[in-house]
């Protein structure tokens, strides 16, 4: 008999059925409310990268910059001059890091496929961004805790990910059609994570969360 599924964010379980479509199952955690796809339905790394390789993001794309501004604008308002950051999951065309650097904020970048220098994950940062990243994480509890550990006291973790709006709308939600999207974070889920790690959190947009590490 297989072990009952546990939550990849908070390790609670067993997690129950939330939704099923023709491709895969979705479970929900009883403690942190994360909705997630079981590991049996995750893409292999090669197939996952093939999806990412189709992305056409670039700092020269004004539309992409406007999209990223949903996180950039509220976050930069919180930063002191010269604050140093890390863009975690920078993707094949790093752009948010360029936007912050243009404003005088040096940034390191990390991406397991496109910028895999893990030495940047041993530093300390005033702010960390992860735009359209957390929904791809197979082990979000471990990865997000690591990012919190890289923040200096008073630092900011800026997340951009679309949030589910309820069970009735979930089956028709375009966000679940991407086969690389395997985790869905409601305000309740992100609030649980913030409280558990001693952070405060606010939601300046429907797909943005700013988590603050106290001094």
UniProtKB/TrEMBL annotation:
It comes from the Bacteria. Coiled coil: none annotated. The keyword Methyltransferase applies. Keywords: Methyltransferase, Transferase. The keyword Methyltransferase applies. GO terms for biological process: methylation. One of its GO terms (molecular function) is methyltransferase activity. Gene3D superfamilies: Vaccinia Virus protein VP39. This is Methyltransferase domain-containing protein.
């Amino acid at each position: 008999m297989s072990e009952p599924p546990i939550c990849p964010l908070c390790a609670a379980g067993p997690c129950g059925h939330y939704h099923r479509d023709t491709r895969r199952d979705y479970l929900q955690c009883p403690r942190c409310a994360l909705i997630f796809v079981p590991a049996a339905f995750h893409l292999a790394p090669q197939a996952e990268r093939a999806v990412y390789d189709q992305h056409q993001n670039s700092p020269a794309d004004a539309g992409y910059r406007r999209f990223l501004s949903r996180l950039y604008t509220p976050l930069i308002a919180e930063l002191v001059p010269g604050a140093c950051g890390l863009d975690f999951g920078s993707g094949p065309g790093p752009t948010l890091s360029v936007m912050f650097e243009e404003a005088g904020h040096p940034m390191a970048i990390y991406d397991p496929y496109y910028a895999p220098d893990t030495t940047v994950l041993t530093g300390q940062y005033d702010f960390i961004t992860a735009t359209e990243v957390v929904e791809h994480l197979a082990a979000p509890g471990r990865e997000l805790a690591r990012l919190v550990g890289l923040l200096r006291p008073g630092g900011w973790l800026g997340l951009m990910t679309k949030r589910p709006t309820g069970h009735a709308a979930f089956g028709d939600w375009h966000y679940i059609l991407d086969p690389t999207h395997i985790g869905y974070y409601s305000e309740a889920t992100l609030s649980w994570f913030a409280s558990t790690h001693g952070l405060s959190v606010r939601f300046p947009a429907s797909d943005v969360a700013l988590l603050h590490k106290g001094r």
